[in-house]
């Protein structure tokens, strides 16, 4: 297995890269910027500087990879169709590189909650609203239109802990936050990374949207 992780300098991206190389998986860490102030990426990964929206650069970097992971996190007030546009360019590059499987770090704002998307629920944090809306549109696009490759949209729960421990315990649950209990699901970045790499290496047929939470 050889994978490429886009957004590898982000919090979830770094944990995914570390989990992959810990297992001996050949890993390309794709980042937009390699500066002194950037977080440290596991040195066992091969670092590629590129923009995930650059189709030609994606195709070059991903050649020879079996799986790709989109862990990019667009900051600020993005437009509702921003993630769809990014996804289209990314998948075109991956298709040119003959990569057949893409796993996306999803957003809980895309999931149904009491008959509406979670981003529209009062419990959804207002500061994350632009990303919540954009992830809703991305998931709808994936369900209706994505045909170039097999995709897995793996959603962390509303409580996503950057500093939480690696317990090595998690479960996949239906992709919905309809119950009040589900809105209190939580997982650490390390356990999320574990679940994602498990999905690639031990359950490669897993596809579509899934919600992952700790026990």
CATH architecture term: 3-Layer(aba) Sandwich
In CATH terms, the superfamily is: NAD(P)-binding Rossmann-like Domain
Strand content: 15-25%
Largest sheet, in brief, is: 8 strands, mixed
**Helix/strand structural class:** alpha/beta
Q: Class in CATH? A: Alpha Beta
**Low-confidence sequence ranges:** none
What order do the strands of the largest sheet run in, or round the barrel if closed? 3-2-1-4-5-8-12-10
State the order of secondary-structure elements, H for helix, E for strand: EHEEHEHEEEHEEEEHE
The whole-number mean of residue pLDDT values reads 94
First-last Cα distance: 29 Å
Helix content: 25-40%
The third-level CATH topology is: Rossmann fold
The number of distinct helices, counting runs of at least 4 residues, comes to 5
The value of Rg in angstroms is: 16 Å
Notes on the structure:
This protein is an alpha/beta fold and 215 residues long. The protein has a single domain, classed as Rossmann fold (3-Layer(aba) Sandwich), CATH 3.40.50. It is built from 5 helices and 12 strands. The chain has an 8-stranded mixed beta sheet with strand order 3-2-1-4-5-8-12-10, sandwiched between helices. Strands 6-7 form a two-stranded antiparallel sheet. The chain has a two-stranded parallel ribbon with strand order 9-11. The longest helix is centred in the middle third of the chain and has 17 residues, at 129-145. The chain is globular and about 45 Å long. The two termini are 29 Å apart. The mean pLDDT is 94.
């Amino acid at each position: 297995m050889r994978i490429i992780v886009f957004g590898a300098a982000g919090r979830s991206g770094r944990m995914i890269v570390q989990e992959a190389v810990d297992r001996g998986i050949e890993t390309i860490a794709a980042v937009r910027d390699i500066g002194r102030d950037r977080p440290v990426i596991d040195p066992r990964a091969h670092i590629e500087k590129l923009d995930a929206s650059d189709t030609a650069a994606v195709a070059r970097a991903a050649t020879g990879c079996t799986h790709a992971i989109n862990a990019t996190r667009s900051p600020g007030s993005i437009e509702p169709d921003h993630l769809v546009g990014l996804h289209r360019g990314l998948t075109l590059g991956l298709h040119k590189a003959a990569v057949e499987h893409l796993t996306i770090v999803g957003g809980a704002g895309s999931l149904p909650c009491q008959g509406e998307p979670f981003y529209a629920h009062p419990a959804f944090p207002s500061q994350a609203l632009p990303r919540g809306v954009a992830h809703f549109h991305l998931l709808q696009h994936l369900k209706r239109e994505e045909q170039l490759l097999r995709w897995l949209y793996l959603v962390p729960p509303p409580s996503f802990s950057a500093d939480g421990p690696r317990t090595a315990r998690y479960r996949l649950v239906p992709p919905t936050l309809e119950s009040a209990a589900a809105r209190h699901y939580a997982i650490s970045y390390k356990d999320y990374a574990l679940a994602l790499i498990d999905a690639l290496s031990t359950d490669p047929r897993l596809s579509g949207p899934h919600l992952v939470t700790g026990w």
